[in-house]
Amino acid sequence: MLTMHCSGQAAECGVKYHQGLGMMLSNLEQEETWLQGWDVLDELIERKPGGYLLFSNYKEISLGEARDWIQAAAYENNKTEFDTEYYKGKKSILINKVPA
């Protein structure tokens, strides 16, 4: 389940969004996890286009790299956490994995 940690729209918050914690994932749950991660990422991009996509270490990545990474994280029994913050003057999306 996706959890929002602030009120308002996703890309307007400087607070974290993540997909829950604390479980081992079945194959179906892994697939649902990466699809949900893609949906959240797409929503964040749609609400604030033109920003950067970044790993938590601020490495700039493409949308394809972000999608691949979200999918790989799910198959490692991890969930995805998103932060939004300014980077190089643009509202950008940081992507991090957290244990399931």
What is the terminal-to-terminal distance?
Answer: 11 Å
Structurally, the number of domains stands at 1
Q: Considering DSSP H and I runs of 4 or more, what fraction of the residues is helical?
A: 25-40%
Determine the strand fraction and express it as a percent band.
25-35%
Quaternary structure: single chain
Strand order of the largest sheet: 1-2-5-6-3-4
Number of helices: 2
> Which structural class do the helices and strands define?
alpha+beta
Radius of gyration: 13 Å
Low-confidence stretches: 1-21
- Identify the overall geometry: elongated
One letter per element, helices H and strands E, the order comes to EEHEEHEE
What does this structure look like?
With 100 residues, the chain is of the alpha+beta class. The chain has one domain. Helices cover 34% and strands 29% of the residues. It has helices spanning 27-47, 63-75; strands spanning 3-4, 17-18, 53-55, 60-61, 78-87, 90-99. The chain has a six-stranded mixed sheet with strand order 1-2-5-6-3-4, covered by helices on one side. The protein is elongated and about 40 Å long. The model is unreliable at 1-21 (pLDDT under 50).
Write the layout of secondary structure elements.
Blueprint: E1 3-4, E2 17-18, H1 27-47, E3 53-55, E4 60-61, H2 63-75, E5 78-87, E6 90-99
Parallel strand pairs: 3-6
Antiparallel strand pairs: 1-2, 2-5, 3-4, 5-6
Helix pairs in contact: 1-2
